[in-house]
Amino acid sequence: MTASIPLSTSSRQVLPLGRRRPVPPALVLVAHGSRDPRALTTVRALMARVRRLRPALPVRLGHIELNEPLLPGTLAALGDTPAVLVPLLLGRGYHVKQDIPEMAAAASAPTRVAAPLGPHPLLAEALHARLLEAGWPSAMDDTVRRSAAVVLAAAGSRDPDSAADTGRTALLLAGRLGVPVVPAYASAAAPDVPAAVRALTARGRHRVAVASYFTAPGRFATQCARTAPWIAAAPLGAHEAMARLVLHRYDQSLTTRSREAA
Hints:
The chain is an alpha/beta fold. The chain folds into two domains: 24-118 and 240-261, Rossmann fold, CATH 3.40.50.1400; 121-225, Rossmann fold. The chain has helices at residues 7-14, 37-53, 71-78, 94-105, 121-134, 142-147, 160-177, 193-202, 219-225, 240-261, and strands at residues 26-31, 59-63, 83-87, 111-113, 148-154, 181-185, 207-212.
């Protein structure tokens, strides 16, 4: 009697070579880089979460500066493997418009740059979750709501597109919370966080929280959190919504490429 062969083993043996599933382009997370060691730990945790959500997808990491691996080295190691670069940046600015595209153009394999993470409703979801973790009330009566507000603390940029993107995220978060959300910046743009807090207090908003619009801990995030008069949320970090957003930007880039080819 011939021994039976498990279906899974038999299937692997008879798959035609020409029918093998193509390997998808690698997803390269592009982080800014930081001297704060917590930043690298956070980005690696986010990368691990992305891999858990899509185990078959090759996921790599490259930094613009300050941390290894640097993006050019990551792209060189990929060799002739196509890649999609997903910037772990929250809006349009110099790095998104200049630095990352220039590094992508120097790669030996076809390399696309996805849109930055923000603005997007998934960022508002993650920001809301971080505020809840910090002590933001899950439910508010009208009296508390009239006294509450949020400062959305961002890094800041001289590029007006970056400010516009941060403003859109502030509107998305305000829609979730039902209170005013004012963008403010750690550098390069106005208002800064203390000025935004003062302006809200002058309007009768005495419960002012600071939402940390940073992908990972670092000097700017710490600096902004210290100015919070009420509660200060942690950076976005490796929240599940962040991992889903990374994959959304990756898929979006591939869909755009398919449409362009058609």
